[in-house]
Amino acid sequence: MEHKVLGIHHITAIAGYAKRNYDFYTKVLGLRFIKKTVNFDDPKTYHFYFGDEVGSPGTILTFFPWEGVPRGKQGSGMPTEIGYAVPNGSFDFWTNRFTEYFVNVTGTGTRFGERYIAFEDPDGLPLTLIIPKIEDNRKPWETDEVGAKVATTGFHSITLTLRSVNETAEILTDIFDYKFVGQEGNRYRYATNHVANAAIVDLLEAPNEMRTGNAGGTIHHVAFRVKDEEALMAFREKVLAKGLNITQKIDRNYFFSLYFREPGGVLFELATDNPGFSIDESVSELGKNLKLPAQYEGHRKQIEAVLPSLA
Fold first, then answer.
1. Residue 1 lies in a domain
2. What is this structure's pTM?
3. How far apart are the C-alpha atoms of 79 and 70, rounded to whole Å?
4. Domain range enclosing 89
């Protein structure tokens, strides 16, 4: 059986304040809050998950909100921009909404024949809304203010900033079976044919860009999607064969994962579709309750006492 990477699974970033982060993504952007849990390595910090109705792979944006963390700077060796797909005809709505909510719009234009609006979240995280060339038929999450005709449908792309794109491109093509799509200036586009959406990785070559650390408004890692644990471990062997270090399989409750740092410095994760976000609460209840990993359940009262209020 041929195992495949099925585009982007999720993207994880750093936020400064939990409530501000929650309000922006649920109210301004209109994403569904699908899971409220804690950082497995730091249970005094939330781990938020936003996505579509069920947290489908390719829609999941997650955050570690570190209260009061200073704003970071985008640099080389890291993901530096998240692209969301939106329907054709939605830009007037979003332009007006960003004005209403004082969202910092950083530019508009066209890339590879697709129109975009670039903006920042309250921590300075770079985001873009993109109208795809090919119609995106994923079902969006709707709110009272953000209806289906304008709502984001999930990820369109992720941009990685690198001093040189060559070795990272080899990981995409040789291990993940991505194909080179084209070049605009110093932006190189790669995509997989194995899925229709959340399929694009842009490599931005910036030889003089400095490396920076993770802080508010920066992306911690990007996770690529595989079907199941069998596929996960098959890709582990491929990464090892490339001469790279990779973790053992890790149980993240809602998926199983592996982590490795590609040669350009970006932290990559491989994550499974299974078991999904309804393993510990029903679809209708997603995001409404604090869900703790088993090792922290006995400390629930102490953890709840130190986590910031979202009210």
1. no
2. 0.97
3. 18
4. 8-306
Q: How confident is the model at residue 293 (pLDDT cuts 50, 70, 90)?
A: very high
CATH of the domain at 121: 3.10.180.10
Provide the residue type at 269 as one letter: E
What Cα–Cα distance (Å) separates residue 53 from each residue in 141, 256, 282? 6, 21, 11
In the chain, how many domains are there? 1
Cα end-to-end distance, the chain, whole Å? 49
Q: Is residue 3 part of a domain?
A: no
Angle (CA) 65 71 75, round 5°: 110
Percent of the chain with pLDDT over 70: 100
